[in-house]
Specification:
mainly alpha; Na+/H+ antiporter like fold; 74% helix; 0% strand; globular; transport; Putative 2-keto-3-deoxygluconate transporter; 2keto-3dGluconate_permease; sugar transport; cell membrane
C-alpha cells in the first residue's frame, strides 16, 4: 500500500483523504464515538494536526536560509494574496454578492483563496527541496478559514478578526526558534512531518461528502475551472519566469483544501444575510475539493515527466 501511494504524486495525502471522504459520505457517524477515536478520525483533529505540522516543519527552517524561502514561497504566496483580494473585490463590484452562473461571491472568494497545504507538502516532499518542505508553515497561514473570511470581509467592507491568523503564526515562530537553537531537535522533529501527512489527509477527507459534492454538478465544475484559470497561469509565470524556479510550488498551492468547506457556514453564522446561499456554496466548494485533489497531482505528474523532474529518493 505504501509503495502504491508513493507512486502517485501527493499519494501519501490523496489516498487517505479519498478513503476518509468515502467514510464521511456513506458512514458519517462511524467514528463519532467521542474521545480519542473521534479526535483522530474526524474533522475535530484538523486544527491539531495542521498546527503540529506547522510547528514540526518550521523547525527545519534555518534562519540562514530564511531569505531564500521568503524570496520563493513568500513572494509566491504574497502574489496569491494580492490576486485573491483583487479578484474578490472585482467580483463583488461586477456581479454583487449573488454572483453569476449560480456561483455566489461567498463561493468564489472561498475557492480562490484556498490552498491545500497538505498537498503542497506531499508534492514538495516528492519533487521539491527540504527548504520547500520547511515552508509548509507559510502555506498554513492561507489554509485557515481566517484568510477567505478576511478577504470576504474587506471586499464587503465588514469587520476584520486577526486572531485566527495570529494563532497560525505562533507554532511557526516557536518551531523556527527551537529548530535554530537546537539543530538536534530540528533533526528529531523533521521526519515526523512525512509520518503525519496521511493523518492530515484523513482529517481533511473527513469533512468531504462526495454525494453533496456531485450534486453541485455544473457550478462545481465551473468553479474548479475558474480556480485554475484565474490563479494558476499568473502564479506559474511568476515562479518560472521571474523567480526562475521549477514551478512545483505553483502546482503545490493549486488545490482547494477540504477545510474550505467549513468557511461558508462560519461566515453564515456571523452574517445571516448569506445563510441562504451557504449550503449551495458548501456543495460547490466540496466538488472543487474533490476535483482539484485529483486533477492537480495528475497535472503535476505530467509536468514533471515533461520537464524531466525526478522524484526525490529521501524517505
Amino acid at each position: 500500500m505504501l509503495k502504491f501511494m508513493k507512486k502517485i504524486p501527493g499519494g501519501l495525502l490523496l489516498i487517505p483523504m479519498l478513503i476518509s471522504a468515502l467514510f464521511a459520505t456513506f458512514a458519517p457517524n462511524l467514528f463519532k464515538v467521542a474521545g480519542i477515536t473521534e479526535a483522530l478520525f474526524t474533522t475535530k483533529g484538523i486544527n491539531y494536526i495542521v498546527g503540529l505540522i506547522c510547528f514540526l516543519s518550521s523547525t527545519a527552517l534555518d534562519l540562514k536560509k530564511l531569505k531564500k524561502v521568503i524570496r520563493k514561497q513568500g513572494s509566491i504566496l504574497l502574489l496569491k494574496v494580492i490576486l485573491c483580494f483583487g479578484f474578490g473585490i472585482l467580483f463583488i463590484k461586477i456581479f454583487g454578492l449573488s454572483g453569476v452562473f449560480g456561483i455566489s461571491a461567498l463561493t468564489f472568494i472561498t475557492a480562490i483563496c484556498s490552498l491545500n497545504p497538505s498537498l503542497y507538502l506531499a508534492l514538495s516532499h516528492d519533487y521539491g527541496s527540504e527548504d520547500d518542505e520547511a515552508a509548509f508553515g507559510l502555506t498554513g497561514i492561507l489554509c485557515v478559514p481566517a484568510f477567505p473570511i478576511l478577504v470576504y470581509s474587506i471586499a464587503k467592507a465588514s469587520k476584520i478578526d486577526w486572531t485566527p491568523v495570529i494563532s497560525v503564526l505562533i507554532p511557526i515562530i516557536l518551531g523556527i526558534i527551537i529548530g535554530n537553537l537546537d539543530k538536534d531537535m530540528a533533526g528529531f522533529f523533521g521526519p515526523a512531518v512525512t509520518i503525519l501527512t496521511p493523518f492530515m489527509g484523513w482529517a481533511f477527507g473527513a469533512g468531504i461528502n462526495i454525494i453533496d459534492a456531485v450534486k453541485a454538478g455544473f457550478q462545481g465544475i465551473i468553479l474548479t475551472l475558474i480556480f485554475y484559470l484565474l490563479m494558476f497561469p499568473i502564479i506559474f509565470f511568476f515562479e518560472r519566469k521571474i523567480l526562475k524556479e521549477n514551478g512545483i510550488t505553483t502546482f503545490g498551492i493549486s488545490s482547494i483544501a477540504g477545510l474550505s468547506v467549513s468557511v461558508p457556514a462560519i461566515i453564515a453564522n456571523s452574517d445571516p444575510s448569506v445563510a441562504a446561499m451557504s449550503q449551495t456554496a458548501i456543495a460547490q466548494i466540496a466538488l472543487g475539493v474533490v476535483l482539484t485533489s485529483i486533477i492537480t497531482p495528475i497535472l503535476t505528474g505530467i509536468y514533471t515527466k515533461k520537464m524531466g523532474i525526478e522524484k526525490n529518493k529521501r524517505a
